[in-house]
Design brief:
Length: 416
């Protein structure tokens, strides 16, 4: 595994603004969070789901060994974690389950648990640790518990106009542009019932018009997302864990859906990533009938060793995550004969990462209609096309990760 220097760490970008660019800001956040967690532990008992997570790790010799080693490896490299043991880490995890992120212009941390685990997850012992199925199943329970908090009224603490923490403050609005979204500024919390209600806010009618709605050959962006990668000639099964992270269709769709995967063998994958500040609902890229719609439970904090140290959390492993992370898969039988089946893969990365599907098999969808949404957490999206289906892609590599996200419902490809 390649290691990188301190100066290289500072240069690497954290895509989508889920975590600050500066490692110093994140280290300071971890230390502050650890202090808050200690205070929380003195006045409140640990939640049952985190107790169960702690019990799993402490009772499994291999998990206990890997987690202890991952923490110590990160500390030995000089990283400021805010914790030195499994017990201290569990107290911090417990505190995050009642944490609603404040806005910050300089050091915004949208994904607190990702920030806490940022270094152990890319240490030698961390790679195997965060792929363990039992650990991920228990992490899913913890993250769902946190999502429950974020879906309740107590999560609205920062849904205010107060500077510098409020999400409706002038500073925050400069990043979000709330005038585009359905909201009620003259009511408490601007009419949002919870943090997740705010996070999954909807655009006002007409804010994102559908490109050429009657032209079935025009494929639109399923998300408000920046282009990340475009790959042709994808294989049915590939070594997705190596440096180039080729897409492995069998692993993306799962072995139970091997026949669906075969439909796209030799085809193209267009991948894009979502920003923390933007829209988190998914829209149909084509008109047609939904033939498949299912969620695959997977990993939450698993990185690819081939990328070396990844201080950007999961950013450098986005191709890899399509095969291993929790994801929603929706296949649409397009009205355009040249396109045939089009697959939409919505990948939850880190923290809550819940993928909620609205459009079910047998349902007719028109291009631009909503398919589902991400609740809180980082996210990336793939559109997968059959071989020969696309005449040309509109955004083409090399992609600029500093560019603004491509608007949802805007054109991304033209069918043959």
């Amino acid at each position: 595994m390649s290691r990188i220097s301190g100066s290289q760490r500072q240069r690497r970008r954290r895509l989508g603004e889920w975590l600050p660019q500066s490692e110093d800001h994140i280290a300071r956040f971890r230390l502050q969070l650890a202090e808050q967690a200690r205070a929380h532990a003195r006045r409140a008992p640990m939640s049952t789901v985190v107790e169960d997570l702690a019990a799993l790790v402490q009772s499994d010799a291999v998990l206990r060994m890997d987690m202890t080693n991952a923490i110590h490896e990160a500390l030995d490299e000089g990283h400021q974690l805010g914790y030195e043991s499994i017990d201290e880490l569990m107290r911090i995890i417990d505190y995050t389950t009642t944490y609603a992120p404040p806005f910050s212009e300089s050091s915004l941390v949208h994904c607190p648990l990702n920030a806490v685990l940022d270094w152990p997850m890319c240490m030698p012992s961390g790679y195997a640790l965060f792929r363990d199925p039992a650990l991920n199943a228990q992490l899913r329970r913890v993250l769902n518990y946190w999502s429950g908090f974020l879906s309740g009224p107590h999560s609205r603490v920062h849904l205010t106009t107060d500077s510098p923490d409020g999400w409706f403050s002038p500073e925050a609005d400069g990043h979000i542009g709330m005038s585009q979204f359905l909201c009620h500024p003259h009511t408490p919390s601007w009419g949002f019932s919870s943090w997740n209600d705010f996070f999954t806010r909807r655009f006002k009618p007409g804010a994102r018009p559908v490109a050429e709605p009657e032209n079935d050959r025009t494929v639109i962006s399923a998300c408000e997302a920046a282009p990340y990668n475009l790959e042709h000639g994808v294989k049915l099964t590939d070594t997705f864990w190596i440096k180039s992270q080729p897409y492995s269709l069998t692993d993306i769709f799962t072995h139970r859906e091997i026949e669906t995967a075969r439909c796209f063998e030799g085809g193209s994958v267009y991948q894009s990533f979502l920003s923390a500040f933007n829209y988190h609902r998914w829209h149909a890229p084509v008109s047609g009938t939904v033939s498949k719609a299912y969620v695959v439970n997977g990993t939450y904090y698993s990185d690819a060793e081939a990328e070396g140290e990844d201080p950007g959390g999961l950013n450098d492993s986005q191709g890899y995550t399509t095969a291993v992370a929790t994801r929603a898969v929706i296949v649409i039988d397009s009205d355009a004969a040249a396109l045939g089946k089009v697959a939409c893969v919505f990948v939850g990365m880190a923290d809550v990462s819940s993928c909620l599907i609205d459009a079910l098999p047998g349902q007719r969808v028109r291009k631009g209609e909503e398919l589902g949404y991400f609740q809180y957490g980082g996210s990336t999206c793939c559109l997968i096309f059959r071989p020969g289906a696309i005449d040309r892609f509109i955004p083409t590599p090399p992609y600029d990760d500093k560019a603004s996200p491509l608007k949802v419902n805007s054109p991304i490809a033209i069918a043959r």
